[in-house]
Amino acid sequence: MDALTRRRFLISSGVVGGGALAAGAGVLGFHELLRTAEKAKAGDVEDGLPTLVLVTLYGGNDGLNTVIPYTEPAYHSARPELAYAPERVLRLDEKLGLNPMLRGMKRLWDAKQAAIVLGVGYPKPDRSHFKSMDIWQTASPGTPAPTGWVGRWLDGTKAATEAAVSFEPALPPMLVGKSRIGACVSYRGLTLPPGVSIDAVSALGRAEPGESEMQARAATSYADLITMSRVVRPASTGPEVQGHTVGDMVPATGTGGDNALSAQLALVARCVESQVPTRVYSASLGGFDTHAGERVWQEALLRQLDDALSAFVDRMGRTEAGRRVTVVVYSEFGRRVRANASDGTDHGTAGPVFVLGHSVAGGFYGEQPSLTNLDDGDLKATTDFRDVFGTAVAHVLAGDPDRYLGGYRARLLPLLTSR
Fold this sequence. Notes:
alpha/beta, 14 helices, DUF1501, 3-stranded antiparallel β-sheet, 14 strands, TAT_signal, single chain, about 15% strand, 9-stranded mixed β-sheet, Alkaline Phosphatase, subunit A, DUF1501 domain-containing protein, about 425 residues, globular
């Protein structure tokens, strides 16, 4: 491509400013992230360490319609329009089953690659989205904390920026430490006009001799967008419900998260397979604040979740590095036991947490909360969320849970196996 044309395009498109800003802020681009694998192989970075993938479901997922107590009379009487008939449930045992949209998860369960921790919550629950999510991400229910639990692990291990990476639109507080911070690499790739292919403009991302440092940085940023577009394109088409894609259907709730989990996990998979030395990845799916018309919204979201997670775990099983990946899926709280007057459910408390992967000892952990012995209409948590995160810190990140969970002494769960 003619150098003058290329420079004019970069300047007029505004990529120069964005690229320079990103470079100056120290934010990792996708190309730079992939190059850390080469640096790790050439240095003293230990190879083959386990990897943790944290998937946040923003909005408060209805746990009772995700892991369903299908034989419990109180479940059916409390939400007669929302409760699933026993014959629709994907049965896991004689009492609990999965939402019918979670067929991939059921397959992982049958293969002993899925564990479900029941009744997960924290003391003195808060029904505010933002306060509750802050508690989960800082692992500090009692007092506000300025750092996230992964961020404290980054501090304690003096980790490099690429040790923790978020493929979300914004860096979650979970990855923020006092002296260290994770990297945010948004999954969004390049949007081009109709009829213009990525291949046709790929020359814009190649370095040219004699150009300024700012233009070179802009070109690198543009190359990042092209690379990410190629990685996420096969995973960008979400499932359809009643003729609409999930991303179009999910209402904006302002509670965080996004609607492209498959795209985010495609980038995680590429990094794992390239042996990038990242130990913690963060991804998210939003839209679970189902106060009205819950059935159609939650089913659409759970179907997207199921497609993304099952495909990711399957792909991870093809490589040695992938088989060392553990996925933890959580939401800030569950929903009320009783349905509201709008065919939805309001903010509640405890809910299930999924732990997935080829190193997971599948099955149930913890105790399913009672649907009759409630706390002001809400489930009573039977497992502290710090026990789940503490297990991940100890067995995936080889850290001391007491040190990174604010002094909480985690009850480590036998979730992981050495197979």
